[in-house]
Amino acid sequence: MKVQLVGFGNIGQGFAQVLLKKTRSLRERYGIDLQVVSISDISGTAIDEKGLNLQKALATMEKTGKIIDYPGAKKISGLEAIEEVPADVVVEATPSNIETGEPGMSHMLKAFEIGKHVVTSNKGPLALSFKKLKEAASKTGVEFKYEATAGGAMPIINLARECLSGDDIIAIEGILNGTTNYILTGMHRKESPFDIVLRESQELGIAEADPSYDIDGIDTASKLVILANALMGMDVSYKDVRVKGIRRVTLEAVKLAKEEGYVIKLIGEVRNSRLEVSPRLVPVNHPLNVDGALNVAMFETDIAGEITIVGKGAGAIETNSALLSDIISIWRKRS
Description:
The chain is α/β, with parallel strands linked by helices and 335 residues long. The chain contains 13 helices and twelve strands.
């Protein structure tokens, strides 16, 4: 199976690292021979239709930070690579853009148009135009897989679709962003103010230099939209979510909640066609009270009742568990 990788930041490089580790295992367990035939970033594209040397690609990025410095790389964009390089699957791992969905939106639509399957970790396009993307994939009969967009390493979508396939999902709620959970956990445990814990999380590499996407609830809202559309049959976008982040959560509020046996968590919830992200009080013994950078999702179903899944929601390596799972799923279905 020939794979094109578009986006070679943390997630893309994590994908290469995982393939180096798992190539033999994938071949022995599933009969899959994965070959990455192109890698694109903003600087250009490395191409080898027989399969790129992933160790060399990673070494190039470590040395110069640009894939164009890979021997023989061309000054063509990811979109041009999708058009020109023969492949079976496009792994779209460019950064999420909640304003326009680009460049990921164009990458996915072009791949569907020419009959290539898409596996993605990019939330932006799905949070803005989920229905459009699904219809584009369906039109040419290709697979569209996006487990990595909603829960990182947590198999939220696959759990619901496979293990709860006989249930109707009435509601979904959970902690869908590890950065905000780390900050709120730190405020609760250490009784430190927001700014101090945020700075600590940035120093540890948990929070970005510009943490707005996480702490303003944008990331959680994007994931909530994807889950609502994919698992509850809704047709909503980011603009349909009522969003409130954690910037105004004070240490005094955290202490008061603690005295009463509660924690404050940033919760995303979809129920009765209403989507909301906001800081909420959660009892200390409740399943949604998970610590550190963990994520948790709880399904309310008509038959199974409440089902809860906990795991790492982010991380370059962890997220690639979901990308790899989706690729294996495509291989099994198509072969």
